[in-house]
Specification:
This protein has 12 helices and 20 strands. With about 450 residues, the chain is α+β, with helices and mostly antiparallel strands. The two termini are about 40 Å apart.
């Protein structure tokens, strides 16, 4: 069904993640391909596929065989390829992981981390108290599940920044024009909520979920129902209803008759800029703890339909590709969880067999997917929340909001959070849970998630 109903969309997602759209649609996609190819996500997907369990690889092989069989059974190729005067390329098992990579791009600011670059620029030119004021969260919009509200912003005095003396009308107009794109940017937001059985007539918990992604035709999700024998299911028959993501065999959200689950984007801090200190005597080397390492160079050839190929030179460090510059001109490498093969797997599929909230929450820290707020409700009336995703970095020795020097021993990402470190809530006293891309926690849990 995915192949015959959604193959073109599947193809776009794998190509978008890999930086290979131009080969299909021509020069119009080259800028996007250049941005995405720097991450070399096809190589990441191949490495991630190699480290999957044999059972997971077999699942992806079967799914890919089904996709290709579905395409072959069609009397004509999908109409989009007729318009483009080309033919669809076969689906490969690792392409399923590229679809997950496309979701990382969608949910993690396109893998660009522009926000932290702008924060660095602000810190470089504005008084600290003014920057703190501009970046302060507004408590009136907060509804955390754990911890209290943020403090109200403190307005700096005129001795720090006096708007009456800040510049000419022409300068004010220029500032307004600079800020306009940010103020007008689209700000999608998902939401979900769960109520415990104490608040329902049946005694079963209830869950609602509305995942707000960019509008598309057709929709990114595919309504799906799976029925199959399962000894762990009531009456030995599993009945799973929800939405799947074409390009993967996983039911993303839904219900299996015992639990219902849903997601919203966590908007945690999953990307960090790293200052790259090149060797003045040899710019092909950069400083790392204990000495110097060589910058790896990759010549990435981007095929462009109807035009010559484009060769992109990617300079890669142990922390990720060099993709930016600090306000002082220092090259910056981007470390991003999506560039780590561990961040991809099919363990989300295990939710189809989870029998209660506790079992579902126990599984969540193992999911190879963009970190999400996971809400779960079960037929016995229990509800719970945690973060789903297996790649929460442990940080040490730097401010994660600013480009940092990781060349000192013990600084940077020093590992990954263990399941016991994940924030988690089960059966709160008021029998209610909710998320909406908002801050969900405070204290040490907020420091962990960012």
């Amino acid at each position: 069904m995915h192949a015959q109903e959604r193959f073109f969309e599947m193809d776009l997602m794998r190509r978008m993640a890999a930086g290979e759209l131009s080969a299909l649609v021509g020069p119009a996609a080259l800028k996007l391909d250049l941005n995405h190819r720097r991450h070399r996500l096809r190589a990441v997907a191949e490495a991630a596929y190699a480290r999957l369990s044999p059972a997971s690889r077999h699942t992806l092989e079967l799914y890919s065989e089904g996709v290709n069989a579905g395409l072959a059974a069609m009397r004509e190729r999908p109409w989009e390829y007729l318009l483009l005067r080309t033919r669809p390329q076969p689906w490969k098992p690792e392409d399923c992981l590229l679809v997950i990579a496309a979701m990382y791009l969608d949910l993690n600011s396109d893998g660009r981390n522009q926000r932290e670059l702008r924060l660095a620029q602000m810190r470089a030119v504005l008084p600290a108290s003014l920057t703190d004021f501009l970046l302060s969260p507004a408590p009136v919009w907060e509804a955390p599940l754990q911890g209290g509200l943020s403090r109200s912003p403190v307005v700096p005095g005129a001795n720090v920044f006096d708007l009456r003396q800040s510049g000419t009308p022409a300068g004010t107009a220029k500032l307004a024009a600079t800020l306009a794109p940010t103020l007008e940017a689209k700000r999608p937001g998902s939401n979900n909520f769960a109520v415990g059985g104490q608040l329902t007539q049946s005694g079963a918990a209830a869950l609602a979920n509305d995942m707000h992604l960019g509008l598309s035709v057709p929709d990114i999700w595919f309504r799906t129902r799976l029925r199959y024998p399962d000894a762990s299911a009531p009456n030995g028959q599993r009945d799973v209803v929800g939405v799947s993501l074409p390009g993967t065999p996983a039911m993303v959200v839904g219900s299996n008759g015992q639990i219902a689950w849903g997601f919203t984007n966590s908007y945690g801090d999953w990307l960090d800029w790293v200052r790259v200190q090149r060797d003045p005597q040899d710019p092909s080397r950069y400083k790392v703890p204990g000495g110097w390492a060589s910058i790896q160079t990759h010549d990435e050839t981007i095929q462009v339909k109807g035009a010559p190929s484009h060769v992109l030179k990617v300079e890669d460090t142990r922390w990720g590709p060099i993709m930016g510059k600090a306000p002082d001109g220092t090259p910056l490498a981007l470390d991003w969880i999506a560039q780590h093969p561990r961040a991809y797997n099919l363990d989300l599929m295990q939710l189809e067999h989870a029998g209660d909230v506790k079992a579902a929450l126990d599984l969540a820290p193992g999911f190879g997917m963009p970190p999400q707020n996971l809400l779960v409700a079960d037929s016995d009336g229990h509800i719970g929340w945690t973060i789903a995703g297996n790649a929460i970095p442990l940080r040490h020795g730097f401010d994660p909001q600013l480009p940092a020097d990781w060349s000192q021993a013990g600084s940077g990402w020093i590992g990954w959070a263990a399941p016991a470190q994940y924030p988690r809530i089960e059966d709160p006293a008021d029998h209610r849970l909710w998320t909406a891309n908002n801050r969900t926690v405070g204290g040490s849990a907020l420091a962990l998630l960012g």
